[in-house]
Amino acid sequence: MAMWIGINRKARVCYGFDDISLVPGPLTINPEEVDISTQIGPFKLDIPVFAAAMDGVVDPKFALLFGKMGGIAVLNLMGIYTRYKDPYSVIEKIISSSPEEATQIIQNVYKEPVKESLIEQRIAEIKKGKVICAVSCIPQYAERYLEISQSSGVDIFVVQATVITAKHISTKYKPLDLNSFCKKARVPILVGNCVTFDVAYELMQTGISGLLVGIGPGAACTTREVLGIGVPQVTATADCAAARDFYFKKTGRYIPIITDGGMVTSGDVCKAFACGADAVMIGSGLVKAIESPGKGYHWGMATSDENLPRGTRIKVGTTGTLKEILFGPAKVDDGSQNLIGALKLSMASLGAKNIKEMQLVEVAIAPSVKTEGKIYQSVKKLQKEK
């Protein structure tokens, strides 16, 4: 649906998580009998959650812990863990800086070149724990780092950019050819990020094994402010899921959709699946874990850009262990803990016994869903802020 925004100019109406609610059906299920597992390439995940490839979220130790809990944590090959032998002193420098200094310090820290020996070392550290090892890098370095990563035993390789397409034009360098890249890869290739049906469908035709959806919704990302680019995650997820379903109908090959960013509460996670996601990728929600390397601080992947930073450092604080955030018991009432328990209960209440059925539940456009009858909660929140 489009609306006129001016003479001869229309704009599409798009929706985010706060704009919708999920509608119960005629059936409910025991939450203990709900199946939340999902399939990514040859790998079955017990929980349909990825930890975002951001330095404040994932280091090798966190990847091990997260993997043992049933999800996949993605290590950023362009991050401080592959630039420094002792990354934790660097993290301390980042998180102890003032808000005014933070961006400049991050920019300086990331000027240190990536060391291929450290790529091998970090992958080996994760593989020792016998969990799924996933790594990420930008398209310009994908061919070189894929070779190193495969030799080191990586299981999943992610090519991630602010905006990715199957067609990229440049006269200054050779663009990554995703078709040939996927063909020669010996491991599943996930790519991101995109937000539209057409681009999602074209990317699936290249041979990828998964697609990250979302441009600019992350808590530490400022792409929408700096570049004005983005589509709210409900619409973006639904459109890319439609491309997935059409591609599957045409080819018989199913490419999972991973909603990346924008989920503040467990309710948002549930809504992402209802809009078509096969898995979700979370950043700021996991930085709150005591075990996260950022110790409650989170910064965007593009904060380090020397010319035009598209991220910022934020403080979300630590609220509990990773186990509490994923599985509970929740110590807070804001939907930031026991994400998996909430997902199971939501699915059970909606009558969805697995992720595929969750993708088919009824969705209502309901901008008042978070405010209706919540005056006392609003007052409580204002009192806390004071």
Could you explain how this protein is built, in words?
The protein is an alpha/beta fold. The protein has one domain: TIM Barrel (Alpha-Beta Barrel), CATH 3.20.20. The chain has helices at residues 60-68, 87-96, 99-109, 116-127, 142-152, 178-184, 197-204, 223-227, 233-251, 266-274, 284-287, 322-327, 339-350, 355-358, 375-385, and strands at 2-6, 9-12, 20-23, 38-40, 43-45, 49-51, 72-76, 134-137, 156-160, 189-194, 210-213, 257-260, 279-282, 297-299, 313-315, 362-365. It has an eight-stranded parallel beta barrel with strand order 6-7-8-9-10-11-12-13, surrounded by five helices. It has a two-stranded antiparallel ribbon with strand order 1-2. Strands 3-16 form a two-stranded antiparallel ribbon. The radius of gyration is 20 Å and the shape is globular.
Poorly predicted parts: none
Provide a count of the helices. Answer: 15
Global morphology: globular
Helix vs. strand class: alpha/beta
CATH class: Alpha Beta
Which fold does the CATH topology refer to? TIM Barrel
Mean pLDDT: 93
Number of domains: 1
Q: What is the CATH homologous superfamily assignment?
A: Aldolase class I
CA-based gyration radius: 20 Å
